[in-house]
Design goal:
Structural class: alpha/beta
Shape: globular
Strand content: 5-15%
Largest sheet: 8 strands, parallel, barrel
Number of strands: 10
Order of helices and strands: EEEHEHHEHEHHEHEEHEHHHHH
């Protein structure tokens, strides 16, 4: 299992090789994971600009996209993104097909199918990782999506519903036969949620298409170890990129050069979160944008505090001030003061 032995240092792991997903060529093998309420278009644009090879949209309800619902349209937007990937969730073939057709017509280069989300809200609706309990039904969704579009279709899954039903290798084989071009596996079951350690070793040897691995990858060493352990072709970075949008790009540069890139300076970190805050307000509008941005502000403060080696009390003080500020101009001023304070701490 990943994490049971020291990381295997292997520089130039891929020598910067691109990754082909059907007809789409991805510049490197590090992917930003789809995360609901997090990987909106502004955050994806930022992560891609900082070096992520591929960035995936928030999970988008296929039926909502087909009905023209605003939330689904905002989630699937890809303006300014080089390779636009829309992840769709659903449990009915006709809606998956229609959602895929609309996403492609709106510019999606790749359609990703969600069979990995563990949240009760999604699984109670027979979507996400609940689909791994009925592989025949899952294949009907895959078939409908693949047949609906010319764009490559990919699949994100978990190992299975629980430890007694580890069926990811079987689903991967059937998905490949149905035309799926890449499989991402989060190395936990649905019932594990995010507990325990990720283990993806059962999937890659079952298929010939590219496989990406997801879960517990927080550093360059973790990424190399994940590839060594799994034999996979790419890594997907999720929660570790929260507050660290530069992380996927750092790992991609390490794969290409073997050089470890340091954490951005506090000044650089401030510029990134300040620009992201403004983009999110413009993208979502003031009311929704403030709510969506608040979590990013908190994560950015966490990252800055780690960089400055600031004590917990100092971080708590600034989080309370920034995250309770209602007006954007006040939040930005508090953010400036927080980073200035962290900077003084780092220089002391």
């Amino acid at each position: 299992m990943v994490g049971t032995k020291p990381p295997t240092e292997k520089t130039n792991y891929f020598l910067g090789d691109p990754l082909a997903i059907g007809s789409v060529v991805v510049p490197n093998r590090v992917v930003l994971a789809p995360m609901s309420g997090i990987t909106d278009a502004p955050f994806r644009r930022l992560a891609e600009r900082l070096g992520a090879g591929l960035v995936v949209s928030e999970m988008t309800a296929c039926a909502g996209l087909a009905r023209g619902e605003r939330e689904a349209s905002v989630r699937s937007e890809g303006a300014g993104i080089g390779i636009h990937v829309v992840q769709l969730a659903g449990c009915e073939p006709q809606w998956m097909a229609e959602g895929a057709r609309i996403a492609e017509a709106q510019g999606a280069d790749i359609i990703d199918i969600n069979m990995g989300c563990p949240s009760k809200q999604v699984t109670n609706g027979a979507a996400g990782s609940a689909l791994m309990r009925d592989l025949d039904h899952s294949l009907s969704l895959i078939d409908a999506t693949v047949c609906a579009v010319r764009a490559p279709v990919t699949l994100k899954m978990r190992l299975g519903w629980d430890t007694s039903t580890i069926n990811a290798p079987v689903l991967a084989q059937r998905a490949e036969a149905a035309g799926i071009k890449l499989i991402t596996v989060h190395g936990r079951t649905r019932c594990q949620f995010f507990d325990g350690r990720a283990d993806w070793r059962a999937v890659k040897q079952s298929v010939s298409i590219p496989v990406a691995v997801n879960g517990d990858i927080q550093t360059c060493a973790d990424a190399v170890q994940a590839l060594v352990d799994s034999g996979a072709d790419a890594v997907m970075i999720g929660r570790a990129a929260q507050g660290r949008p530069w992380l996927p790009g750092q790992i991609a540069r390490y794969f290409a050069t073997g050089a470890r890139v340091g954490t951005p300076s506090l000044a650089e970190q401030f510029n990134l979160i300040d620009a992201l805050y403004g983009e999110m307000l413009n993208h979502h509008g003031l009311t929704i944008g403030r709510r969506h941005a608040r979590k990013h502000l908190g994560w950015a403060l966490n990252a800055a505090a780690i960089t400055a080696e600031a004590p917990a009390e100092q971080l708590k003080h600034h989080r309370n001030r920034v995250l309770t500020a209602e007006e954007p101009k006040h939040a930005r001023q508090m953010l400036v003061e927080a980073f200035d304070d962290f900077g003084r701490r780092a220089a002391a």
